[in-house]
Design brief:
By secondary structure, the protein is an alpha+beta fold. It has helices at about 5-10, 15-20, 30-40, and strands at about 50-55, 65, 70-75, 80-85, 90, 105-110. The longest helix is centred in the first third of the chain and has 10 residues, at about 30-40.
């Protein structure tokens, strides 16, 4: 069996580590720090249409999309307005970090 692309060169042993190493702001980290980060972070798997958070959610986390896509949207006057669609290797949640306030939006799995 041949190693998956990128594993032999990087020294990363799991898919989660490999995917985290591809996130733009994590790329400068050495493999041992990526490995530590992968071990200390929780994975959340969502079904299509399932919400990760709602406007009442108090954000104190940074989310990294490892696979699939997540839609960030707001509901105003009964209509949905999509702010952004976030794909694999991208992150979100930083706007609410540290201030103890909710983001005022929904995050929904698209796939």
């Amino acid at each position: 069996m041949e190693p998956q692309e990128g594993r032999a060169e990087s020294g990363l042993s799991s898919d989660k580590e490999r995917l985290l190493s591809l996130v733009n702001f994590l790329q400068p980290l050495p493999p041992d720090e990526i490995r530590d980060l992968a071990q200390r972070t929780a994975e959340v798997h969502l079904d299509t249409g399932q919400n990760l958070f709602t406007p009442r959610y108090t954000n104190n986390m940074l989310f990294v999309v490892l696979e699939g896509r997540v839609r960030i949207y707001e509901v105003t006057g009964g209509r949905e307005f999509t702010f952004q669609v976030i794909g694999a290797g991208e992150f979100f949640g930083e706007m609410g970090l540290g201030n103890g306030q909710g983001l005022g939006a929904y995050a929904q799995a698209l796939e």
